[in-house]
Design brief:
By secondary structure, this protein is mainly alpha-helical. 81% of the residues lie in helices and 0% in strands. The chain has 18 helices and no strands.
Amino acid sequence: MQLQVEISNKQILRIAMPIALSILVPNINFITNNIFLGHLSEEALAVAGITGVYYLVFGVMGFGLSSGLQAVMSRRAGENKADEIGPLFFQAVRIALVFAFFGIATTWFLAPALFKYALHSEESIKMATDFLRIRIWGLPFLFIYQLRNALLISINKSKFLIIGTLAETLANVFFDYAFIFGHFGFPEMGFNGAAYASIIAEFTGLVVIYVVIHFGGIGKTINLFSSKKLNRDSIKLILQQSAPIVVQFAISVGSWEFFYILIEHHGTQPLAISNIMRNLFGIFGCFAWSFASASNSMVSNVIGQNLEHRVKELLFKISKLGLLFSISIALLINIFTRLFLSAYGQSDSFIEAAIPVARIISLALILQSVSTIWLNAVVGTGNSRRNLIVEVVAIVIYCIYVYTVLEYFNLPITIGWISEWIYWISLLVPSYWYMQSNKWMGRKI
């Protein structure tokens, strides 16, 4: 098995495109949920925005753990130390299960109080609480699934991600339709049906990926199943690399939840529109995140090959490809805006109000595509603490802006969504400067 990567456009696309599809599919699942819920009521669509972002706060904890693990495993791949990759993975699974328990306990005991304080509608509070007390049980499956994705990316087997995500999508669409509306002999569960469908879909994706790794012979190559004993040194290393990223992602999405709470104060329609914008960000931003993930893995791999002097060359290649995809997507969004928005079954006045926000999002996606590549390159160098500092500064700027615009001056949500431009620029500038400074050279993980 070839573990070392080449610095070429072909290699970048070979890694990034399967990742894009693997990220796209969960977002299609989320959009499917919202399209079905949009046909239930505007309120269901609005509450789905709050619950979706809440679940994402914990979901990105797993993504942060997998990102840190991916950097470490990619470094071992670059060093041709395949036998050390599998044992690292099993230590990460232990950490993930602890994270999942924390997420479940927090949701059951603290989330109701949070929503009572933050939301104005009693009906919305009840809907959000009941939904999340079901949905949160999918966390263990989601976390381990994310770790398996990181494993496949780090050993240049990202093409297998498509199989698991395809299975997850088919399961989600089927059970969404069956549970929400009560088809195929299942009871009609309404809003909560989407929660049960998502859990089943996450479990399905996990099982399929496990089968692929087991029967594809990948496990033997990387020593995956040979050592399951507790290894404190490996756990310490994984936490050192992952903990800052976990905190970074958690506060990032937590600030998004803060943004949605402020939007809720403007009414049901602005909240529903913002939920659709999150869908837009998710489905079209998957290409940005795929190149970002490739940046993390390839930078770490190239450093492991003792080719530090070629890291910037690699990053400019990834950035050019990321920009090409994001500009193309931005054009599609602006041309077919009305077609995309009409899928949610809302009124013409709703669509007219949403169109200007979609225009703002399209430019934010271009900024995101470059920002995430350079930010994740810092992760690849092993300096995840630097990422946390950059994120904290960007979030402070973001939160000050959205509070001032939406709460203090009570301006329209169109102005509020400009916060995305400010956020991505605030991440890009210090990340780019750090990589250009060469202060990351010589760092070992």
